[in-house]
Design a protein that fits this description.
Elements lengths: L10 H8 L5 H21 L2 H8 L4 H16 L5
Length: 79
Amino acid sequence: MKVSIDVECSPEEARAFFGLPDVRPLQESMMAQMQAQMQKVAASMDPETAFKALFPLQSDSFTEMQKAFWGQFTGKSDK
């Protein structure tokens, strides 16, 4: 015997039915704070500083990584 029950409800209705909290206001608040902080940091950085913050590799390491990457594309190897 197989019994199947289909319930059609929105995520909000399902959360309320199971007694779970609505975290949407908290999520929206946190996202707004993160966006404001990211915009503040982005506005205060020049592109070179932003690049160094995102990719903290030393220039020699980055150059080697580029060579290895392009070597894979061209089929050439430095070794």
